[in-house]
């Protein structure tokens, strides 16, 4: 039977339209998602201007005692599932023996404490390392998100818009710091946001506020009044996995060469 050419032409045009959409839709969705969240922020914080800020965090490993109050406060503040597999921030204990490989442990993110070190193990040193999303300038998670749900704000924070996230896990796989997880209830990607709802209201992130030793320092790059200015001045600063060129915005003082 001969096909009706009037029927074929609309079908060809439809396919061409969809093909063009597949090329442009991710970038369009990125713009819409970014605008959607930042417009909401502007409405909730009428005096807040993201272009005037550039947030970052410092972590002084020498001060960390491994209490993990930061991890617990984060779960309470941001409604992170209490199961031991989901964290926006956690604390790892490094045990460096005189011989052999380092032992890295973080049971329940450090919230439940750490197991006793083997008595027959000759330990050279131990220390604690808090970890979280690094809010990278060149964030791999932003690059791989197919719908623009993960994006960087004008004030330097990497966020996830849950209304746009499709739960594909691309960002989770792309993150070299293991800082993301899929929320078991919402089925969308979740991670540290620097407690964005707090910092845009001129408050500290929950993890910084509860730290008893001031291990974490939160502030802004480039501002003379920022607590980070003194942190950078008096410490040798490093970032995690600098060779990846992600340009992290979580800076460490006293970072041991064994840290992965």
How would you characterize the overall build of this protein?
The protein has 260 residues and is an alpha+beta fold. It is built from seven helices and eleven strands. It has helices at 5-44, 69-78, 140-144, 170-174, 196-199, 206-210, 227-233; strands spanning 55-60, 89-97, 103-105, 123-132, 150-152, 158-160, 181-182, 189-190, 216-220, 237-238, 250-253. The strands form four sheets. Strands 9-1-11-10 form a four-stranded mixed sheet, with helices on one face. Strands 3-2-4 form a three-stranded antiparallel sheet, with helices on one face. Strands 5-6 form a two-stranded antiparallel sheet. A hairpin with a 5-residue loop joins β5 and β6 (158-160). The longest helix has 40 residues, at 5-44. The radius of gyration is 22 Å and the shape is globular. Residues 1-12 and 17-35 have low confidence and may be disordered.
Task: List the main descriptive attributes of the protein structure presented here.
alpha+beta, 29% helix, three-stranded antiparallel β-sheet, four-stranded mixed β-sheet, 260 residues
Provide the fold topology.
Layout: H1 5-44, E1 55-60, H2 69-78, E2 89-97, E3 103-105, E4 123-132, H3 140-144, E5 150-152, E6 158-160, H4 170-174, E7 181-182, E8 189-190, H5 196-199, H6 206-210, E9 216-220, H7 227-233, E10 237-238, E11 250-253
Parallel strand pairs: 1-11
Antiparallel strand pairs: 1-9, 2-3, 2-4, 5-6, 7-8, 10-11
Quaternary state reads single chain
Classify the helix fraction into a percent range. 25-40%
> What is the β-strand count?
11
Strand order of the largest sheet: 9-1-11-10
Mean pLDDT: 88
Rounded radius of gyration (Å): 22 Å
Intertermini distance: 67 Å
Q: Give a short account of the largest sheet.
A: 4 strands, mixed
Structural class estimated from helices and strands: alpha+beta
Low-confidence stretches: 1-12, 17-35
Task: List SSEs in N-to-C order.
Answer: HEHEEEHEEHEEHHEHEE
Count of alpha and pi helical runs:
7
Question: Which outline best applies?
Answer: globular
């Amino acid at each position: 039977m001969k096909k009706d050419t009037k029927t074929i032409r609309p079908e060809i045009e439809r396919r061409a339209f969809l093909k063009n959409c597949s090329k442009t839709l991710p970038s369009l969705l990125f713009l819409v998602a970014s605008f959607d969240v930042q417009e909401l922020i502007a409405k909730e914080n009428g005096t807040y201007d993201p272009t005037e800020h550039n947030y970052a965090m410092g972590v002084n490993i020498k001060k960390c005692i491994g209490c993990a109050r930061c991890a617990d406060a984060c779960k309470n503040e941001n409604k992170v599932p209490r199961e031991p597999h989901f964290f926006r921030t956690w604390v790892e204990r490094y045990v460096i023996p005189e011989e052999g490989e380092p032992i890295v442990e973080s049971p329940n993110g450090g919230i439940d404490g750490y197991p006793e070190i083997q008595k027959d193990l000759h330990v050279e040193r131990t220390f604690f390392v808090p970890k979280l999303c690094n809010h990278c300038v060149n964030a791999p998670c932003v690059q791989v998100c197919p719908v623009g749900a993960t994006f960087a704000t004008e004030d330097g924070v990497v966020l996830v818009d849950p209304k746009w996230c499709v739960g594909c896990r691309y960002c989770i796989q792309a993150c070299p710091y293991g800082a993301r997880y899929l929320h078991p209830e919402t089925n969308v990607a979740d991670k540290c946001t620097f407690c964005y709802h707090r910092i845009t209201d001129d408050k500290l992130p929950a993890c910084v506020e509860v730290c008893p030793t001031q291990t974490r320092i939160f502030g802004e790059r480039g501002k003379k009044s920022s607590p980070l200015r003194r942190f950078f001045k008096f410490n040798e600063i490093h970032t995690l996995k600098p060779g990846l060129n992600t340009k992290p915005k979580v800076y460490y003082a006293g970072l041991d060469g064994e840290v992965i």
